Amino acid sequence: MKALRKFLDKKKPLFQKGGKFAKLQSSFEAFETFLFVPDHTSHTGTHIKDAIDLKRTMSIVVMALIPALLFGIYNTGYQHFLSVGELANTDFLDICIYGLIKILPIIVVSYVVGLGIEFAFAQMRGHQVNEGFLVSGMLIPLIMPVTAPLWMVAVSTAFAVVIGKEVFGGTGMNIWNPALVARAFFFFAYPSKMSGESVWIAEKADSFSGATPLAHAANLVDVKGDAAVTLYQQHLSNVWDMFVGFIPGSIGETSTIAILIGAVILIATGIGSWKIIVSVFAGGYVMGMLFNLIGGNSYMELIPAWQHLIMGGFAFGAVFMATDPVSGAQTARGKYIYGFLIGFLAVLIRVLNAGFPEAMMLSILLMNTFAPLIDHYVVQGNIKRRLKRVKVSA
Amino acid sequence: MSEVKKIKKGLDIKLAGKAEKVLEKADRSETYAIKPSNFPGLTPKLKIKVDAEIKAGDSLFFDKYCPEINFASPVSGKVIAVNRGERRKILEVVIQADAEIQYQEFKKADPNVLSREEIKEKLLKSGLWAFVRQRPYDVIAKPEDTPKAIFVSAFDTAPLAADIDFLLENEAVAFQAGLDALAKLTDGKLYLNTNPNLNQSKIISGAKNVEVRQFTGVHPVGNVGIQIHHISPMNKGEVAWVIRPQEVIFIGRLFTKGIYDVSRKIALCGSEVKTPCYFETILGASVRNILKGKLKDDEKIRVISGNVLTGEQISEDGFLNFYDSQITVIPEGDKFEFLGWALPGLQKFSMSKTFFSWLTPNKEYRLDANLHGEHRAFVMTGEYDKVLPMDVLPQQLVKSIMIEDIDQMEQLGIYEVAPEDLALCEFVCTSKINVQDLVRKGIDLMIKEMS
After folding, report:
1. What DSSP line would sit under A300-317, residue for residue?
2. What CA–CA distance (Å, rounded) separates A393 from A387?
3. Which domain of life is it from (chain A) (predicted)?
4. B193 φ, ψ (degrees, to nearest 5)
């Protein structure tokens, strides 16, 4: 490592002001600080600092995403071979390799495009490159359909980084979750590639239905009585598969188990807010219960409240999207309200509007927008308590 | 006895090198210095010239905007230098000490029979007033104010902090005299805040003329600002005064001995000290003789006057700061670490559980001054809340200071906080934001706007 350090020290002047490659200073520093935690010491304030930094934080989140990613790779192969009827003849390794071949390009495109833009912006502004995209770059592939054309992934990612993040000033300044901005852009710009039955399974056999459980569930709205029960029995009763993740859907969102492993990592390390995660699930459950109680159509009556939590992107959104500290509520009390409303609205939109079966995305983006308002009221509450104190003592 | 207030929020940072309760002898320091920078917001005006012969208690400089407040020489001798920085700002006034200290005579007196004005006058004249500080703003108290109460924290929870019971040993008379004097300065109460878990000595538990309040918990529970928040929080327009126990002794000595005697015990601690222990010295002393031969020298070190959270870096022949009773020595840590952010980190301390050091909760750490990362914009939320046991929203307050929004700062509690109270917020900050500097900046802004 000493040799590497020496090499960097030797090359560093070239990239500093007045050097030959001064224009690439941000990029050089990004790589340098990636390899070596810098020798900067504290000059004012506390002399010692907590060992954590943004690189550590972000890499923990990426680690928490790994189970969902691995399962996504396996499930991609699994769904493909299931659809073509070859599942029994294919061994585990081939399934994984097939999935990997399908998914790896999406990940590469997301990182290359996103980091490329991040580096360019850092360079333009003379800033350091922020670590935020390490997570966004992994989140974006996991919420895409496996059949997404790579150029669309690239355009969505570019849109998310530029409009979702850089125009606000970069990591820490954005008002919406960048990964969800990418997905929302994709969803509205190329709807045919992100809805319907054919996009969720790679190279699906035409005869095989590739509908997601949410799509089946949406069909419940129009049927009644025994027909509804039959539909439910046929397509929605296998909750174990839904929980484990053997269902069609976006790459990383299908397995509730894998997502929960990620949640445990996030909560145990203290990186993700358990307040948000728990209240999103609580909000979804309460709305589901209300539907169960009110009734009205077969969707509301037949889907138990808890089943909403394992269908579609609900769990993924709750654990990895809603917990984004930048776009979410920042006050402790605000986090409960913010999380609860995300879950509540997601189930509400999902059930009432068949056009948007994947309501989690919209619900989180909506609450991202309202998070500052929630915080505002929490802060006002704190201010009022302080003013009240004066009156009491006066 | 009052009930015990338990503070749960906060963080004890366990560092290696806690001072053993043994009082060692060090060679007497030859030079002493008083640094105006130890008093935030002060504009000093010199009263002496270089080469002047002075006694302990003679004024070196005074506050330009409040000329009654004097800053006295801790020893007798000759002023050998007035070191100045940019724009002729006075950095330090250095005194070469006599072998035998000559004290200026201020007359003994019984504080119980003196009037409030007489006590004030005595403190101002002798230079002891500088030890009385006020909330809000954490600056030297204004003599014309009458505080709603005076608070003394009788324990210190900062990392490796000096044990206050040990500092007060054999000083019972002076301590009580000091408390008696302080009690006269307020119409409210004189609070002495103790920690029942520490088995505090008779000197503290037997103190008279005070209202005892009890606190337990983790750092920053020993900070007087936190205690005030839980006893009688600071509202707009209110003033409270605070003072540390050792400084109460200084005041006591003025009344019992009639002199400005600021000799104090200090703790020499930290992982780079061979045998951490206590020393008898005098305020403002050069640390060279204290450190001589006491340090491990296998690595570049950093000497701090004060503790690792709020102290100030000084050189190895620098001077002890005015309010500090501890010298901490830690490794400098100005080196690169290969893939440091990715290592398991058994030697790294973090409030989060992102490093595997959480498996060994009782380990004592040898931490250096490395930032462990780069400055970033705010990303994480809720970190600050975990280490500030006040009904104050720290992150929102810091943001309001960043945008210099006076109204919001006031509403969010700038009157209640001192930089030291948010030191842990700065420690845990993932984005390495200089919280204490910002709080001080906000306070300076408030003082400017409100005057």
Report:
1. HHHS-HHHHTTSTTHHHI
2. 10
3. Bacteria
4. -95, 120
A45 with B372: Cβ contact below 8 A: no
Provide CATH code, domain B263-350. Answer: 3.10.20
By C-alpha distance, which of B38, B31, B29, B41 is closest to B91?
B38
Q: Do B313 and A43 touch (CB under 8 A)?
A: yes
User: Cα dist. A135→A55, A59, A171, B119, B174 in Å?
Assistant: 10, 8, 11, 63, 61
Determine, for residues B377 and A60 on separate chains, whether the beta-carbon distance falls below 8 Å.
no
- What integer is the mean pLDDT of A85-97? 88
Conformation bin of residue B127: beta by default, left when phi > 0, alpha when psi is -120 to 50: left
Q: What is the dihedral of CA B42, B45, B51, B55, to 10 degrees?
A: -70
A200 by DSSP, 3-state: which?
coil
Asked if the C-beta of A6 comes within 8 angstroms of chain B's C-beta atoms, the answer is no
Closest approach of chain B CAs to the CA of A41, in angstroms? 4
Question: Which residues of chain B have a CB within 8 Å of the CB of A128?
Answer: 374, 376
pLDDT averages per 10-residue partition of chain B, 451 residues = 84 92 88 94 92 93 94 94 92 93 91 92 93 94 94 94 92 93 94 89 84 93 95 92 95 94 94 93 92 86 94 92 94 83 81 82 88 87 92 94 94 94 94 94 92 77
Please report which residue ranges of chain A form alpha helices under DSSP H. 2-15, 25-35, 54-83, 92-125, 132-142, 150-164, 178-189, 213-219, 225-231, 239-244, 256-269, 274-294, 298-302, 305-308, 314-316, 332-352, 359-393
Say if the Cβ atoms of A5 and B345 lie within 8 Å. no
Tell me how close the Cα of A152 comes to any Cα of chain B, in angstroms. Answer: 29
A-B CB pairs within 8 A amount to 210
Residue type, B162: A
| Strand partners for B193 | B153, B213
Domain residues of chain A, as ranges? Answer: 54-193, 213-246+273-380
Domain boundaries along the sequence of chain B: 263-350, 384-450
First to last CA, chain A: 66
Shortest CB distance from A49 goes to which of B340, B411, B432? B432
- Phi then psi for residue B237, to 5 deg, are 90, -15
Nearest by CB to A54, which of B353, B391, B431? B431
